[in-house]
Automatic annotation (TrEMBL):
UniProt-recorded name of the protein: 3-oxoacyl-[acyl-carrier protein] reductase
Superkingdom of this protein's organism: Bacteria
One Gene Ontology molecular-function label: oxidoreductase activity
Similarity section: Belongs to the short-chain dehydrogenases/reductases (SDR) family.
Residue span(s) of domain Ketoreductase: 3-176
Annotated InterPro entries: KR_dom, NAD(P)-bd_dom_sf, Sc_DH/Rdtase_CS, SDR, SDR_fam
SMART domains reported for this sequence: PKS_KR
Species per Swiss-Prot/TrEMBL record: Candidatus Planktophila vernalis
Signal peptide: none
Entry keyword tRNA-binding: no
GO BP field: monocarboxylic acid metabolic process
UniProt cross-references to Gene3D superfamilies, sorted A to Z: NAD(P)-binding Rossmann-like Domain
Biological classification of the source: Bacteria, Bacillati, Actinomycetota, Actinomycetes, Candidatus Nanopelagicales
Keywords per UniProt: Oxidoreductase
Length: 234
């Protein structure tokens, strides 16, 4: 019997690639999305990770229709980049609320089901900038750094129930977000990466799928970089 896998923010970019990869590995994938349209070929529900009510409602719906999600990929997130002197409280707080508190809301609700199953995977999608920092992204890098402490605390708190918690930290990925960079900036960034290129969303998805697999059953509390060497293990 296949496991139910939940991917938040799964209607585009990394989330959609993860959904396809988990489905190809035989999992029963449900994606959540807040806006836009549901991706073709997947079970889907609307979930706004900034609302506890929305998260709880989505989980109730998923559990009633398809069963308890055993694999949770907390991927939903936003950016509101800007220089720190001009960054408003709202710009900072909204990114923390979506990326960090949102991941907590999802993981907290998911844990109810995982404790019943006595097994499961919590997989948080972080970022290389969570460790390296990034000019113009004080809010985003703070939110992604916080995921490491969160995952490791979940790992310690519920690990004895057969539940792992890990962070997969992408570097610069070919997505809609990075496609808007001009050629000069793209070349500058690629030049700072030891492998000399951006990552594909599929390369991130492959690592997430590995962490969700039985082969990764003894990996917990880890920060797994998929960044072409940019962070060098930080």
């Amino acid at each position: 019997m296949s496991s139910v896998a939940l991917v938040t923010g799964g209607n585009r970019g990394i989330g959609l690639a993860v959904a396809h990869s988990l489905a190809a590995a035989g999992h029963d994938v449900v994606v959540t999305y807040r806006s836009g349209s549901a991706p073709a070929g997947f079970k889907s529900v609307i979930m706004d990770v900034t609302s506890t009510e929305s998260v709880d409602k989505a989980f109730d719906e998923i559990e009633a229709q398809w069963g308890i999600p055993e694999i949770i990929v907390a991927n939903a997130g936003i950016t509101k980049d800007g220089l720190v002197m001009r960054m408003s409280d709202e710009d900072f707080e909204s990114v923390i609320d979506a990326n960090l508190t949102g991941a907590f809301r999802v993981a907290r609700r998911a844990t109810k089901g995982l404790l019943k199953l006595k097994k499961g995977r919590l997989i948080f999608v972080g970022s290389v900038v969570g460790a390296l920092g990034s000019a113009g992204q004080v809010n985003y890098s703070s939110s992604k750094s916080g995921l490491v402490g969160m995952a490791r605390s979940f790992a310690r708190e519920i690990g004895s129930r057969g539940i792992t918690a890990n962070v997969v930290a992408p570097g610069f990925v070919e997505t809609d977000m990075t496609s808007t960079l001009d050629e000069k900036r793209r070349n500058e960034i690629a030049g700072s990466i030891p492998l000399g290129r951006f990552c594909s969303a599929q390369e991130i998805a492959d690592v997430v799928t590995f962490i969700a697999s039985p082969q990764a059953s003894y990996i917990s509390g880890a920060l797994i970089p998929v960044d072409g060497g940019l962070g060098m293990g930080h």
